[in-house]
Design brief:
The complex is a heterodimer. By secondary structure, chain A is α+β, with helices and mostly antiparallel strands. Chain A is built from 9 helices and 11 strands. In chain A, strands 9-2-11-10 form a 4-stranded mixed β-sheet. In chain A, strands 3-4 form a two-stranded antiparallel sheet. A two-stranded antiparallel ribbon of chain A has the order 5-6. In chain A, strand 5 and strand 6 form a beta hairpin. The radius of gyration of chain A is 26 Å and the shape is elongated. The termini of chain A are far apart. Chain B is mainly α. Among the domains of chain B are: 42 residues, no CATH class; 31 residues, no CATH class. Chain B is built from 6 helices and 2 strands, in the order H-H-H-E-E-H-H-H. A two-stranded antiparallel sheet of chain B has the order 1-2. Chain B is elongated. The chains are: A alpha+beta, B mainly alpha. The interface between A and B is medium-sized, with 31 and 32 residues. Strand 1 of chain A pairs antiparallel with strand 1 of chain B, so a sheet runs across the interface.
Chain lengths: 256, 129
């Protein structure tokens, strides 16, 4: 064979092409054929929502039962003072709803309301998060990825419902370490946290912890399904949502 | 050819080489590095993927698992052999590897890496004050 430039270039070109194909092939072979999928047991919806019957859970004690169940399931610390972390808590009418009334009927005046993250349809916290640590899932749940939270607290400023708490200190210092739920993580100092509508329970086919202990006073279901339990309850009762004028479209409804 | 300031240069070179080779001298005669002996699960023989894959790629796998479970809502992992696992560090990995100190820490300490998993995730031994 002649040692011409043409032959040399042909040979070099073929070799390079062969190396490319071989390495691509080996990369394809090395990549595992593994996939991820949703569990068959998982509860699914287009938009999860909750209806709270405030006539039935309308006192501090009854709401405390819900909070205890939730906070135990999610390892939420109880910190005395203003740095407390809360996923669900009790508040009066004026604090819960933007409709002050000087002459309210007595039962409503004394009633306490269970407040939690509203899992809004257009959540302002998601819009302001600079790292997309908080995001909206396709089923409407506003979830958080604590791995990504940098603790800037923009979401806390943006949330009109005060649903978010900041971990000013190491939360494990205020948790009973013997009674932790070992199926769920804790958080660390410097991240924001809030109610997650029990995504980890929904993934296993269970309803949220607070709904489970509410003895039917809390109803959970798919808002987009006209035949669902929540829609049925909403058809039958007068309900209001928190601060509807802000346009965030909360998914938590209160039977008054 | 003449080496100007030869004495100083050669002395300097000798000192430099001496310092440069101290780690070698320090470790001379010691046993070579061997991979730490890990405490393997008793009841389970196979991990979600092969041992080699897990040794080199468990960090990437955990990153994918996190995004899959949290962001895509897909919490079942189907491995290359078609077997299914729940995607969860605490509820899958640590149910077999029941001892962080005897498993995770051994290599991480040797490799001098400090992953932040355990800042939030609860180790199977539980937490102590």
């Amino acid at each position: 064979m002649n040692h011409t430039r043409r032959n040399f270039l042909k040979f070099a070109g073929l070799t390079a092409a062969g190396l490319c194909v071989a390495s691509a092939g080996s990369v394809m072979a090395a990549a595992t054929a593994a996939t991820e999928k949703a569990s068959e047991k998982a509860l699914q919806a287009k938009r999860w929502a909750m209806v709270i019957d405030t006539k039935r859970v309308g006192t501090k004690e009854t709401i405390d039962v819900l909070a205890k169940a939730c906070h135990a399931a999610h390892n939420v610390p109880d910190i005395p003072g203003r740095q407390n972390v809360k996923w669900i808590w009790a508040a009066g009418f004026d604090e819960a709803f933007d409709q002050p009334n000087n002459f309210m009927d007595e039962s409503l005046e004394k009633r306490e309301f269970a407040l939690l993250c509203n899992h809004c349809a257009s959540p302002s916290c998601v819009r302001v998060c600079p790292t997309q640590a908080t995001y909206q899932r396709p089923d409407g749940i506003v979830a958080m990825d604590y791995h990504r939270c940098i603790g800037c607290r923009y979401c806390m400023a943006a949330c009109p419902y005060g649903s978010r708490s900041f971990n000013f200190m190491e939360p494990r210092l205020h948790l009973d370490l013997a009674k932790l739920n070992k199926e769920f993580p804790t958080r660390m100092r410097g991240v924001v946290e809030k109610c997650n509508f029990c995504v980890e329970r929904l993934a296993k086919g269970k309803i949220p912890a607070c709904v489970e202990v509410s003895q039917g006073a809390l109803v959970f279901g798919d808002l987009s399904d006209p035949a669902s339990e929540v829609r049925k309850v909403l058809r039958e009762h007068y309900t209001i949502r928190r601060k509807p004028a802000l346009g965030t479209e909360p998914s938590v409804y209160y039977i008054i | 050819m003449k080496l100007y300031n030869g004495g100083k240069i050669i002395t300097g070179l000798v000192i430099f080489l001496g310092l440069f080779l101290t780690p070698l001298a320090y470790n001379a005669g010691k046993a070579a590095y061997s991979q730490p002996k890990l405490k393997m699960p008793v009841n389970e023989k196979e991990c979600v993927e092969s041992k080699d894959f897990m040794r080199t790629k468990h960090m990437q796998l955990l990153n994918e698992w996190r995004d899959s479970a949290l962001r895509n809502g897909k919490r079942v992992y189907v491995n290359s052999k078609g077997k299914e696992f729940e995607i969860s560090l605490q509820n899958t990995c640590m149910k077999c590897h029941t001892n962080k100190a005897e498993f995770c820490d051994k290599c991480h300490l040797d490799a001098s890496v400090t992953p932040y998993c355990w800042d939030c995730h609860i180790q199977p031994e539980g937490l102590k004050k």
